[in-house]
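During the no-cost extension, the postdoctoral fellow (Dr. R.K.) reprocessed legacy sequence entries with the updated structure-token encoder. One reprocessed record is reproduced below for audit purposes.
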Amino acid sequence: MKKILIQLDTDQLPSSFDRVVALDAGADELLSYGGVTPDNIVPLVHGAIFTRGPGDLKNTAIFVGGSDVHAAEKVFEKVQQTFFGPMRVSTMIDANGSETTAAAAVRSASKHISFQKADALVLGGTGPVGQRTAELLASQGARVRVASRSLDRAKDTVSEILNKYDGANVVPCECSDDGLAAAVDGIQLLFACGAAGVQFLTAEEWRSIDTLKVAVDVNAVPPVGLDGISVTDKAEDHNGIPCYGAIGVGGLKMKIHKAAIQRLFQSNDQVLKTDAIYALSNDLT
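Re-encoded structure tokens follow.
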């Protein structure tokens, strides 16, 4: 029986990137739909769960994507609500690549330092990748500072994380000239997860953090988020600090993405989001 992946994309044109990865990961057939919303996807979900018997539903799966992460999350939630009893298929969300990128960034850093009680700063922490990076670090016991140019946005993101991880050690901070010194003080982990072309720190600024143990920058568009880190850096030593650039993280991101697609077809009840996707990365490093 063929493995069919149904791609539900919130953009009008379904992502060609996600399509290529799905086929490379072993999906036999790919059914792609764009412009999906919580209001129009129920017939598509019914088509996935009513066409094969319960014993064969592991051969059908749903992938939710799109450039608007919040819109994709609403679609993903509606998909889960549409299932009932044994009538369900495995699902994965990776809108804008945020889930797999964050998993790869955090897993890369884990090779060099224990997160337990480590102090981490996530620059661009209110964006899709930044928030998921902060969530994963907090779930692993790190003390996380979520930085944004808007302190109010940072506070909102921290509230969302605390709703998911009760008791997590996560605080907001403002990424500004006035607040930068306090934000970087005493950190061991530094992640730059901002928008394309946004530089947070000069090479002199981040290299002068004497407590820093690992630096990761997931921005591939110049100027990079952390000046001096090359996009191809993969555990590259910068004055004793192992550093990763976007492409250095990207290889592991692609492995995680493909492994997650393959996992979907092992049973009909997989739900692959942030934590589950990160767990997959443990065997891929």
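The domain at 4-97+252-283 is CATH 3.40.50.10280 (Rossmann fold). The mean pLDDT is 95. The remaining legacy entries will be reprocessed before the final report is submitted.
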